[in-house]
Specification:
Length: 170
């Protein structure tokens, strides 16, 4: 195996554990992986072996919400960010209205007016929205949902065939 080659992900044994019903279909857990890439490799392997992959699902389990703090939020940053967003909205509205302008001179005037009014109303929105928080959330952040494990599941009538094929992958 070369240095760049990726070793196949390790999975738990095929137990045939029946997962909860979703609609009228019953899915069986074929294998559990620590990473999404591992589950994806298993599905890809089944596809390469000719298995009808439309019977499969990759299910993220043990979900966690991770909020990464990206910076401090101040009055100035709140107003500037909202004004910038408002300016872009003003550009969009002005472009739509500008399509109806009789001359190109009117079009540029409409565009500049849209940017100005958009920034103004966006800035006002920034003041109001930051003021409403009352200093309880003086930071910016990005949220993501991360799974602790990934289960490859299969519709019950096809689970035995899929489980037999997956045993060859390990």
């Amino acid at each position: 195996m070369s240095e760049d080659a990726v070793e196949p992900a390790q999975a738990t044994e095929f137990t045939g554990e029946i997962e909860r019903r979703t609609s009228d279909a019953v899915h069986v857990v074929l294998a559990t992986y620590d990473t999404y890439v591992g589950a994806q490799e298993a599905v890809d392997y089944l596809s390469d072996e000719g298995f009808s992959v439309q019977h499969l699902r990759i299910v993220g389990a043990d979900l966690r919400l991770i909020e990464t703090i990206t910076g401090r939020l101040s009055w100035l940053r709140s107003i500037a960010g909202a004004a910038a967003g408002g300016a872009w909205l003003g550009v969009l509205i002005a472009l739509v209205i500008g399509l109806l302008a009789p001359t190109s001179a009117d079009w540029w005037r409409i565009l500049l007016t849209g940017v100005a009014y958009g920034a103004l109303f966006g800035g006002i929105w920034g003041i109001v929205s930051y003021g409403v928080t009352g200093g309880r959330r003086d930071f910016t952040s990005a949220r993501s949902i991360v799974a602790g494990r990934y289960e490859v599941t299969c519709l019950q009538p096809f689970a035995d065939d899929a489980g037999t094929l997956l045993k060859r992958l390990r």
